[in-house]
Amino acid sequence: MRTMSSAQQPYLVERGPGRFEYQLPVSVKMVIDLKGRVPLLRNEREEWELPGGKLELGESPESTVVREVEEELGLEADLLDGLDVIDTWVYRIFPHRHVFIVSYGAEYRGAREPRVSHEHKALGLFTASEVKDLTMPAPYKKTIEAWWRRRSAP
To answer: Which of 31, 70, 97, 123 is the most exposed place for a label (fewest CB within 10 A)?
Structure first.
């Protein structure tokens, strides 16, 4: 098995003569409806992002995203209601850094207020209309918009 990397084709692994496939890390993210606002975290690139993180060996995507929400926001997993996949995409962070994203949505029904962990610089609570003006990757904005549309559909 050969690995090939270039600016055009990162993370490719040869599976047969001339047949390559992507080998990407998987990251799971969550859009949380917290009393009409979505909690977002500011990362080291000064961008807002959804809570979540990398899929660990032996974990399901659902258990990963629930664990990450508990770690990053301090919100109790058993009070997340309606956990549902919103969308998936490949996120090009840098030319040689791509990640496969799976995003979920849920409503938080607890009383605890979210808090920021040591992994991020800041926590913000934003309405759907405020998200469009934030410094954040476009796919995250699209995911948040899709979740709010789904929540408001009859």
So the answer is: 97
